[in-house]
Design goal:
SagB-type_dehydrogenase, oxidoreductase activity, alpha+beta, 8 helices, NADH Oxidase, Nitroreductase, Nitroreductase-like, six-stranded antiparallel beta sheet, SagB-type dehydrogenase family enzyme, globular
Protein backbone atom coordinates (compact mmCIF):
# COMPACT_ATOMS: atom_id res chain seq x y z
CA UNK A 1 0.00 0.00 0.00
CA UNK A 2 1.26 3.45 -0.88
CA UNK A 3 2.23 5.57 2.16
CA UNK A 4 0.04 8.55 2.95
CA UNK A 5 0.97 11.71 1.01
CA UNK A 6 2.96 13.44 3.75
CA UNK A 7 5.02 10.28 4.40
CA UNK A 8 6.25 9.85 0.83
CA UNK A 9 9.79 10.43 -0.45
CA UNK A 10 8.30 13.08 -2.74
CA UNK A 11 7.02 15.04 0.25
CA UNK A 12 10.38 14.76 2.01
CA UNK A 13 12.05 16.24 -1.08
CA UNK A 14 9.50 19.06 -1.19
CA UNK A 15 10.13 19.94 2.44
CA UNK A 16 13.92 19.79 2.20
CA UNK A 17 14.07 21.90 -0.96
CA UNK A 18 11.76 24.68 0.28
CA UNK A 19 13.01 28.25 0.76
CA UNK A 20 12.42 30.48 3.76
CA UNK A 21 13.88 33.83 4.78
CA UNK A 22 15.65 32.51 7.88
CA UNK A 23 17.79 29.90 6.11
CA UNK A 24 18.04 30.80 2.43
CA UNK A 25 21.32 32.73 2.73
CA UNK A 26 22.99 30.27 5.07
CA UNK A 27 21.83 26.91 3.79
CA UNK A 28 24.69 24.77 2.59
CA UNK A 29 24.47 24.33 -1.16
CA UNK A 30 25.37 20.89 -2.50
CA UNK A 31 28.52 21.15 -4.63
CA UNK A 32 27.76 19.63 -8.02
CA UNK A 33 30.38 19.88 -10.76
CA UNK A 34 29.38 21.69 -13.94
CA UNK A 35 29.17 19.95 -17.29
CA UNK A 36 29.12 20.85 -20.99
CA UNK A 37 26.20 22.92 -22.32
CA UNK A 38 25.72 20.65 -25.36
CA UNK A 39 26.05 16.94 -26.01
CA UNK A 40 27.20 15.43 -29.31
CA UNK A 41 28.51 12.18 -30.74
CA UNK A 42 31.74 12.98 -32.66
CA UNK A 43 31.84 9.67 -34.54
CA UNK A 44 28.21 9.75 -35.69
CA UNK A 45 27.16 10.56 -39.28
CA UNK A 46 26.06 14.23 -39.47
CA UNK A 47 23.00 15.46 -41.36
CA UNK A 48 22.67 19.22 -41.83
CA UNK A 49 19.17 20.52 -41.16
CA UNK A 50 17.53 23.12 -43.41
CA UNK A 51 16.61 26.53 -42.01
CA UNK A 52 14.48 27.84 -44.88
CA UNK A 53 11.19 26.42 -43.68
CA UNK A 54 8.04 27.22 -45.62
CA UNK A 55 5.48 25.86 -43.21
CA UNK A 56 1.86 26.51 -42.38
CA UNK A 57 3.10 27.24 -38.83
CA UNK A 58 5.02 30.38 -39.77
CA UNK A 59 3.14 32.36 -37.09
CA UNK A 60 4.19 29.86 -34.43
CA UNK A 61 7.76 30.11 -35.69
CA UNK A 62 7.78 33.88 -35.11
CA UNK A 63 6.33 33.51 -31.60
CA UNK A 64 8.97 30.95 -30.64
CA UNK A 65 11.70 33.11 -32.14
CA UNK A 66 10.59 36.21 -30.22
CA UNK A 67 10.00 34.57 -26.84
CA UNK A 68 12.40 35.82 -24.16
CA UNK A 69 12.01 36.24 -20.44
CA UNK A 70 10.74 39.80 -19.97
CA UNK A 71 11.26 41.69 -16.71
CA UNK A 72 10.47 45.25 -17.83
CA UNK A 73 6.91 46.21 -18.68
CA UNK A 74 5.14 49.18 -20.24
CA UNK A 75 3.90 50.81 -17.05
CA UNK A 76 1.07 52.89 -18.53
CA UNK A 77 -0.32 50.31 -20.96
CA UNK A 78 -2.57 47.76 -19.30
CA UNK A 79 -4.27 44.61 -20.53
CA UNK A 80 -8.00 44.13 -20.91
CA UNK A 81 -10.34 41.38 -19.77
CA UNK A 82 -10.52 39.84 -23.24
CA UNK A 83 -6.74 39.45 -23.34
CA UNK A 84 -6.64 37.89 -19.88
CA UNK A 85 -9.38 35.50 -20.97
CA UNK A 86 -7.29 34.48 -23.98
CA UNK A 87 -4.21 33.90 -21.79
CA UNK A 88 -6.23 31.69 -19.45
CA UNK A 89 -7.74 29.70 -22.29
CA UNK A 90 -4.37 29.24 -24.01
CA UNK A 91 -2.72 28.02 -20.83
CA UNK A 92 -5.44 25.77 -19.36
CA UNK A 93 -8.65 26.08 -21.36
CA UNK A 94 -10.88 23.08 -22.10
CA UNK A 95 -10.74 22.02 -25.76
CA UNK A 96 -12.51 18.64 -25.98
CA UNK A 97 -14.29 15.90 -24.10
CA UNK A 98 -13.04 12.32 -24.20
CA UNK A 99 -14.94 9.83 -22.08
CA UNK A 100 -15.03 11.25 -18.58
CA UNK A 101 -12.15 13.65 -19.23
CA UNK A 102 -12.31 17.30 -20.28
CA UNK A 103 -9.12 17.80 -22.26
CA UNK A 104 -7.23 21.10 -22.21
CA UNK A 105 -4.80 23.10 -24.30
CA UNK A 106 -1.85 21.74 -22.30
CA UNK A 107 -1.20 18.00 -21.82
CA UNK A 108 -1.44 16.30 -18.44
CA UNK A 109 -0.44 12.80 -17.32
CA UNK A 110 -3.57 10.67 -17.25
CA UNK A 111 -5.67 13.76 -18.06
CA UNK A 112 -5.73 14.39 -14.30
CA UNK A 113 -4.81 18.12 -14.41
CA UNK A 114 -3.41 18.59 -10.89
CA UNK A 115 -2.38 22.23 -11.52
CA UNK A 116 -4.57 25.10 -10.29
CA UNK A 117 -4.18 28.67 -11.57
CA UNK A 118 -4.26 31.75 -9.34
CA UNK A 119 -3.82 35.30 -10.60
CA UNK A 120 -2.63 38.45 -8.90
CA UNK A 121 -4.19 41.23 -10.95
CA UNK A 122 -2.50 44.63 -10.89
CA UNK A 123 -3.29 46.53 -14.10
CA UNK A 124 -6.13 45.02 -16.13
CA UNK A 125 -9.07 47.03 -17.45
CA UNK A 126 -12.45 45.77 -16.18
CA UNK A 127 -10.80 43.78 -13.37
CA UNK A 128 -10.22 45.18 -9.90
CA UNK A 129 -6.78 44.46 -8.45
CA UNK A 130 -6.51 41.47 -6.17
CA UNK A 131 -6.06 37.73 -5.92
CA UNK A 132 -8.22 35.55 -8.18
CA UNK A 133 -8.67 31.84 -8.88
CA UNK A 134 -9.38 30.45 -12.35
CA UNK A 135 -12.39 28.09 -12.36
CA UNK A 136 -11.51 26.00 -15.42
CA UNK A 137 -14.79 24.08 -15.63
CA UNK A 138 -16.98 27.19 -15.75
CA UNK A 139 -14.35 29.36 -17.46
CA UNK A 140 -14.69 32.03 -14.80
CA UNK A 141 -12.47 34.05 -12.50
CA UNK A 142 -13.23 33.93 -8.79
CA UNK A 143 -12.18 36.99 -6.83
CA UNK A 144 -10.68 35.89 -3.52
CA UNK A 145 -8.71 38.64 -1.73
CA UNK A 146 -8.93 42.24 -3.02
CA UNK A 147 -6.04 43.37 -0.80
CA UNK A 148 -3.41 41.13 -2.46
CA UNK A 149 -1.41 43.14 -4.97
CA UNK A 150 1.60 42.79 -7.23
CA UNK A 151 3.94 43.99 -4.49
CA UNK A 152 2.77 41.06 -2.34
CA UNK A 153 3.52 38.59 -5.11
CA UNK A 154 6.96 40.18 -5.50
CA UNK A 155 7.62 39.98 -1.76
CA UNK A 156 7.01 36.23 -1.53
CA UNK A 157 8.97 35.64 -4.74
CA UNK A 158 12.31 36.58 -3.14
CA UNK A 159 11.55 40.33 -3.39
CA UNK A 160 11.95 40.42 -7.17
CA UNK A 161 10.69 43.94 -7.85
CA UNK A 162 9.82 43.44 -11.52
CA UNK A 163 6.88 41.25 -10.47
CA UNK A 164 5.23 44.25 -8.78
CA UNK A 165 5.41 46.14 -12.10
CA UNK A 166 3.70 43.41 -14.14
CA UNK A 167 0.10 43.72 -15.31
CA UNK A 168 -0.65 40.39 -13.68
CA UNK A 169 1.10 37.36 -12.24
CA UNK A 170 0.09 33.75 -12.76
CA UNK A 171 0.70 31.42 -9.80
CA UNK A 172 0.35 27.68 -10.36
CA UNK A 173 -0.23 25.31 -7.49
CA UNK A 174 -0.34 21.52 -7.44
CA UNK A 175 -3.00 19.44 -5.75
CA UNK A 176 -0.71 16.49 -5.17
CA UNK A 177 -3.34 13.80 -4.66
CA UNK A 178 -4.83 14.29 -8.14
CA UNK A 179 -1.71 12.81 -9.68
CA UNK A 180 -0.18 10.76 -6.87
CA UNK A 181 -3.35 8.86 -5.96
CA UNK A 182 -3.01 7.14 -9.35
CA UNK A 183 0.73 7.19 -10.01
CA UNK A 184 2.21 7.12 -6.50
CA UNK A 185 5.72 8.54 -6.05
CA UNK A 186 6.15 8.72 -9.83
CA UNK A 187 3.21 11.09 -10.02
CA UNK A 188 5.28 13.73 -8.24
CA UNK A 189 7.44 14.09 -11.35
CA UNK A 190 4.39 14.64 -13.51
CA UNK A 191 3.31 17.68 -11.49
CA UNK A 192 6.34 19.67 -12.63
CA UNK A 193 5.95 18.54 -16.23
CA UNK A 194 2.33 19.70 -16.23
CA UNK A 195 3.29 23.10 -14.84
CA UNK A 196 5.97 23.49 -17.51
CA UNK A 197 3.53 22.71 -20.32
CA UNK A 198 1.10 25.30 -19.00
CA UNK A 199 3.72 28.00 -18.60
CA UNK A 200 5.07 27.59 -22.14
CA UNK A 201 1.55 27.87 -23.55
CA UNK A 202 1.09 31.06 -21.55
CA UNK A 203 4.36 32.60 -22.75
CA UNK A 204 3.55 31.96 -26.41
CA UNK A 205 0.04 33.35 -25.96
CA UNK A 206 1.52 36.44 -24.31
CA UNK A 207 3.79 36.97 -27.32
CA UNK A 208 0.76 36.73 -29.61
CA UNK A 209 -0.89 39.75 -27.92
CA UNK A 210 2.17 41.95 -27.68
CA UNK A 211 3.13 40.97 -24.14
CA UNK A 212 5.97 39.10 -22.53
CA UNK A 213 6.50 37.11 -19.39
CA UNK A 214 9.07 35.78 -17.00
CA UNK A 215 8.79 32.31 -15.44
CA UNK A 216 9.48 32.30 -11.69
CA UNK A 217 10.47 29.31 -9.57
CA UNK A 218 12.16 31.25 -6.73
CA UNK A 219 9.83 31.96 -3.83
CA UNK A 220 9.53 31.57 -0.08
CA UNK A 221 7.37 28.48 0.01
CA UNK A 222 5.42 28.93 3.23
CA UNK A 223 4.88 32.67 2.67
CA UNK A 224 3.62 32.06 -0.86
CA UNK A 225 1.26 29.32 0.27
CA UNK A 226 -0.13 31.57 3.00
CA UNK A 227 -0.61 34.42 0.52
CA UNK A 228 -2.77 32.12 -1.62
CA UNK A 229 -4.63 30.76 1.40
CA UNK A 230 -3.63 27.15 0.67
CA UNK A 231 -3.87 24.08 2.85
CA UNK A 232 -0.19 23.24 2.37
CA UNK A 233 -0.68 19.64 3.48
CA UNK A 234 -2.42 19.02 0.16
CA UNK A 235 -1.66 21.95 -2.19
CA UNK A 236 1.42 24.10 -2.69
CA UNK A 237 2.81 26.65 -5.10
CA UNK A 238 5.05 25.12 -7.78
CA UNK A 239 5.62 27.80 -10.40
CA UNK A 240 4.70 31.35 -11.40
CA UNK A 241 5.03 33.82 -14.25
CA UNK A 242 4.71 37.58 -14.47
CA UNK A 243 3.00 38.95 -17.58
CA UNK A 244 3.08 42.49 -18.91
CA UNK A 245 2.84 44.66 -21.98
CA UNK A 246 6.10 45.14 -23.86
Amino acid sequence: MMPELNDTLAWEYLEKSSHDRATIRHRRRVQIAETASYKNYPEAVKIELPLDWSLQGARLQSLLQQRRSLRRYHASNGLNLNEVSFLLWASQGITAKMGGHLLRTAPSAGALYPIETYLVIEKVADLSPGLYHFDVGRFQLERLVPEVRGKDAARVCLNQDFIAEANLTFLWTAIFRRSMAKYGERGFRYLFLDAGHICQNLLLAAEAIGCGGCPIAAFYDQEANRLLGLDDRNERLLYAASIGRK
